[in-house]
Amino acid sequence: MRQGYNPYKDNKTKPLPFSHQVVIPVYIPHQKDYFKDSFQILKLCIGSILKTSHPKTFISIIDNGSCNEVSEYLQNLLNSGEIQELTTTKNIGKLNAIIKAVAGQNIPLVTITDADMLFLSNWQSETVKVFNAFPKAGVVGLIPQFLTYQNKSENLLLEHFWNKKLRFIPVKNPFALAKFYESIGWEPNYSRAKLDYILGLTAENGHIACVGSGHAVATYRRELFNFDFPLYNPYKMGGGSEQILDDLPLKYGLYRFTTYDNYAYHLGNVYEDWMQKKFSTLDSEEKELTLKETPFTKKTASAFSQFKEKLMNKALKSFKIRMVFLKHKGLPKEVRKYF
């Protein structure tokens, strides 16, 4: 039976003193074959976040069915206060793990990252600068990649088609761009032009961001998870599960961006000496940069807007039409065929 009155009943929760949440799903079932170096790489990933993040960062890790050694390491991080949240579960899939982490929180920015990323100094402040410069930014990635403007950025391209500040610009960090494709196993047989030019948008305050974003590591406006975000996904990976995250900004007419410079390295599943050397050069925690308050309400893109975006998507797949667009946006003639 129950006696007395629960003193916490009807008490409101106090706002947490955090401005940025980092979500890391972790699945390392053993330490052999494909996962031989994964534990070592995970330590670099988490260590880089701890080293480069400001004190108001709430780190959520979802242990998605890892082996005992990894689980014990993560539990020790929680016990020592280095991370703020640890959820331990069976292998329920990447997106379901993310769903668990974002539920029950109300932190303005949410970075979702794979467990094989090395975060670089100033990644948080540079992310906030993009959100502050572009009020319609919905997601901001940290790793510039090839042709991201062609994937789920049709709304931005349409709305800024005549804007002279939407232009092809020099790649800020060609070395890091090439390093990303090396990390995912690409041979360097792609056109050098892709390391030279990228589509960028310049804000009113002069800040530059790359158009489009990948999903291996990216920061989302918290509000995007408050509307129509699923409570369950049937796939462990793939099966369109990553597209759910990619589609979030478009559903509400927001844009996908990436920082102009590179602020993270993808490490993959094979350890290399350069990774530890790069880790040792990272600066300690940075100061928090204030995020401007941008009013956000649930305003789903109209059917007409979605129709226009589908037309833009088809148009970009047409070689002739794409060449006209590339010319209009200042890409030199001799390299257009590679974009």
From TrEMBL:
InterPro entries (alphabetical): Glyco_trans_2-like, Nucleotide-diphossugar_trans
SUPFAM superfamilies given in the database record: Nucleotide-diphospho-sugar transferases (SSF53448)
Ranges of residues in domain Glycosyltransferase 2-like: 39-156
Coiled coil: none
Pfam families: Glycos_transf_2 (PF00535)
Protein name: Glycosyltransferase
